[in-house]
Amino acid sequence: MTDEIRRALCKHNKDNPSLTQKQLQEWVHSNYGLQGLKKLSKIEKEERKRDRATGWTDLETGHHTHLMISIMFFLEEFHHLKIQLQDVLIATDNFGPNKLIGHGGFGQVYRGELVLPEGRVMVAFKRLDRKFGQGNTEFWKEIMMLSKCKHENLVSLIHFCFEGDERILVYKYAPRGSLDRHLSDTSLTWMHRLKICVGIARGLNYLHDPMETKQRVLHRDIKSANILLDENWNAKVSDFGLSKLGPANQPQTFLVSNVVGTLGYCDPSYFETGLLSKETDVYAFGVVLFEVICGRLCCEYRKNELVHILVPLWKKCVDEKKLDDIICHSLKGQIDDDSLMRFSTIANRCLHKNHRKRPTIGKVLKELEAVLKQQLIAVNEKEAESSQMTTATASVISSSSIALFANVLGRKGTSVARVKKTGVLSDDGYTWRKYGQKYVLNSQHPRCYYRCIHSKLYGCPAKKQVHGCQQEPETFEVTYHGDHTCIVSSSMPSKAMTSHSPPLSPPTVQWLSMDMAGQPSGD
């Protein structure tokens, strides 16, 4: 019967993650009677005995005497971190709505300024809401964890307030908020996303395999909402209210009555068995990796009700090599193919059903650092290629009838440039007037003609009609300099020549103006 209750508790905790000890006892009594309560008591004693034997620390809700002793100990040990409630009220305008920046299971978060030794500093105040499930346990655990664990990729605890009914944690302010708010942001580049993922992995690696404290921390609630970002997009792992602290030589522990994490991120085997290990955090991090590359959260909600968990779909697409079906559209074209394959592979391995076959966070970190390095090499190669291009500039005469005359040699698939002269466009702000184009490389190269019919500006693909040439225009930019004169500049790759031309490096370009009929005015 004990094993049956263990399994039932795991399932019930999954559906009701904020049970108090009293509620847990009532649930067991209603389902298993007095005999079940005796079994529950036996389970709890085994848990406490095992924790003492293995060195694992978890302030279980309901052990009132143990909790009060721990609070007295914490107040003495961390007295230097305590702050007066009056200072908090002044900094937050008495918890004014204009200072509110977020909320979660713990309570509400406010921003404000405190005077610290280094001067006035913007901080975040996380205020415990006593009406909800999380409470003293998480409050003191967060203080204990963050006072022991110091790392550049962990959130920094500055102060706490323990006064009357108020429980407030004070952190260094993260101006960009949490990662979940930026997943769909098209301006968040692939390089930024990789940097964030590497930062999370470094923070977790410090928690799992510490070098100095010799104590391991299992976070148990890794998710995008618990990753904070500073002004430079550096990741900070936060929210240690559900974490567990123990010796680094213990590979795993068992939990029954505690909170098990967040739906969508929680390891399925942990849900089913109650077995907690380092790889439980690895699974959750794998979900975050997929969220980063897919640009969306792992769960879909409608009217605050869960309708779909996307993790199985993501795994299936990786297994079937259909990454294009799930990758964030704004990232396509930014990601080096080899980097994409390595990133998706390591993310998929983190989600292996068998936790023993998942990589350690140390191995995940090495892979992500390799992906970042590979992506940097690809970017540098593109920049080196671009630096080999020459820039040709010349004056172009502007008139009211013919808006722009420019001759550009370039590669196929490029777009017509950004234009900074309103006179270049027709009245609709969309269409270029028809005009002829001509470029002259040098005496060894043929002359080619282009006629631009219709173009969207600012980086959109252009519609072109090309005559007598195998090349299409490269991107160019026009800047108005007054006196009816525009300066036209363009990058010319040396390899972008007609197929029958001898290779020259670099090509020289002469810009020619056209007459009103759209014909070349010079040779």
Automatic annotation (TrEMBL):
Residues 425-489 form the WRKY domain. In the N-terminal section; belongs to the leguminous lectin family. In the C-terminal section; belongs to the protein kinase superfamily. Ser/Thr protein kinase family. One of its GO terms (cellular component) is nucleus. SUPFAM superfamilies: Protein kinase-like (PK-like) (SSF56112), WRKY DNA-binding domain (SSF118290). GO terms for biological process: defense response to oomycetes. The keyword NAD does not apply. Residues 95-372 form the Protein kinase domain. It is found in: Cell membrane; Nucleus. This is Uncharacterized protein. Keywords: ATP-binding, Cell membrane, DNA-binding, Glycoprotein, Kinase, Membrane, Nucleotide-binding, Nucleus, Receptor, Serine/threonine-protein kinase, Signal, Transcription, Transcription regulation, Transferase, Transmembrane, Transmembrane helix.
